Amino acid sequence: MQDALLCYCRAGFEPELAAELTDRAAAAGLAGYARANRGDGFVRFHAEDPQALTQALPWRSLVFARQKLTALADLPGLDPRDRIAPVMAALAGHGRWGELWVEHPDSEAGKPLSGLARSFGNALRPALRKRGFLSEKDNPRLPRLHVCLLDGDHLLLARGDPGDSAPWPLGIPRLRLNPGAPSRSALKLEEALLTLLTPRERDTLLKPGMRAADLGAAPGGWSWVLARHHIHVTAVDNGPVQQALLDSGLVTHRREDGFRWTPERTLDWMVCDMVEQPRRVAVRMGEWFGNEWCRHAVFNLKLPMKKRWQEVRTCLELFAEAAGGPLDVRARQLYHDREEITVFASGT
Fold this sequence. Notes:
This protein is α/β, with parallel strands linked by helices. 30% of the residues lie in helices and 25% in strands. The protein has helices at residues 14-27, 50-56, 84-91, 114-130, 186-196, 199-205, 221-228, 243-247, 278-290, 308-323; strands spanning 4-8, 32-36, 42-47, 67-75, 99-103, 144-151, 154-160, 211-215, 232-236, 251-254, 267-272, 294-302, 328-332, 340-346. The strands form two sheets. A seven-stranded mixed beta sheet has the order 2-3-1-4-7-6-5. A seven-stranded mixed beta sheet has the order 10-9-8-11-12-14-13, with helices on both faces. Helix 5 (186-196) packs across helix 7 and helix 9 (278-290) runs parallel beside helix 10 (308-323). The radius of gyration is 22 Å and the shape is elongated.
């Protein structure tokens, strides 16, 4: 089990994550194979050299993985009256941990285990500290211990590197929809800015007074997020935009086709969440960079029902070709995404 990565994903997208890990490992010259079942909410990827694998596949580079961990042990057939003793035995010799997260897959089978995860964590945490396995206070400089409950008598143990893993349990940032948001789509952009940008990038790339375009803006969820950063937004859509946004003085509505509209000068940001063929969107987004119409962008690519990892690769290649220059590109299927991925691109 210690030769494997353990990656969480959206339930139903295990084949896509398995295909991504397999392709990326092969591209790095590393042999390995994936074990995945549709609907489980996680994938295990076994490799001959797990250390080289985790270095070749940093968490921030993965599209379909919400979380990336190094598997330590698979403990099936546990006695529900004493799950702690087998965990202690499995952790012997693995050093000290800075934090404990007891989780369950974000799946139909995993969600009913949330109560057990809380109670088991409350029992396990003091036991680990008594044995010296866990620091008295959370220590982000030490590796993080993940306990993933698959059933009442079955759990996985895994190691999380604080510098190369999601900083949220299950890899899911917990966001709440602001009552003033025009639509739930605002959560997608909020999560994208939180997940795809580093804290320093959010400070430097989202400054008051910047200018942006929101293509396919109606009813204005993404424009609303940018306006909350005091960024001036041109909302481009033939449909209506929330009046409160227009009253803010930060959002201007242009009733035009988002695929045809172009800015008069280079903008700091362009965002786009249009329901269109992903390849068409990818090419158009690349043209924005190729023509220097924007410096940074966040856009969504709606995926087909089959061969979704292959479609992601093709779209990112088309985007890079249309952009024509070096860009920093990060893509991920976010918690608030459905049959889509979100891409951040920056020319600086």
